[in-house]
Amino acid sequence: MSGSRIRELMRRRSLNITELAKLVDVERSHISNILAGRKKPSIDLALRLSRVLGVTVNELMRKDGFRTFGPRPRR
Fold first, then answer.
1. Taking a C-beta distance cutoff of 8 angstroms, is the pair 14, 54 a contact?
2. Are 25 and 35 spatial neighbours (Cβ–Cβ below 8 Å)?
3. Using an 8 Å Cβ cutoff, are 61 and 68 in contact?
4. How many percent of the chain have pLDDT more than 90?
């Protein structure tokens, strides 16, 4: 999960770090550390983030357009 992906989703929802932290019930510093790449969210937090940001966990975890979960595409 990239911090830039979360930031983009936050921007779309007009949320700042403090608001997002309150909505997912964690400290502001924890969200800041995730955005900076110093921490990774737990599965539970990833679920809460995806709900608040209006995307699936799959979409939240996506990097550069590639899926991180699910079957590999057939060639």
1. no
2. no
3. yes
4. 64
Closest Cα partner for 60 from 28, 35, 38? 35
pLDDT of residue 47 exceeding 50: yes
Contacts of 55 (CB under 8 A, 6+ apart): 9
Q: Could you report the per-residue pLDDT of 4-28, keeping only the tens digit for each?
A: 889 999 999 999 999 999 999 999 9
Cα–Cα distance between 46 and 5 in angstroms, integer?
Answer: 13
Around Cβ 43, how many Cβ atoms within 10 Å? 8
User: pTM for this structure?
Assistant: 0.79
| DSSP one-letter code for 66 | B
The answer for residues whose C-beta is within 8 angstroms of residue 7's C-beta and 6 or more apart is: 35
In the chain, % of residues over pLDDT 70: 81
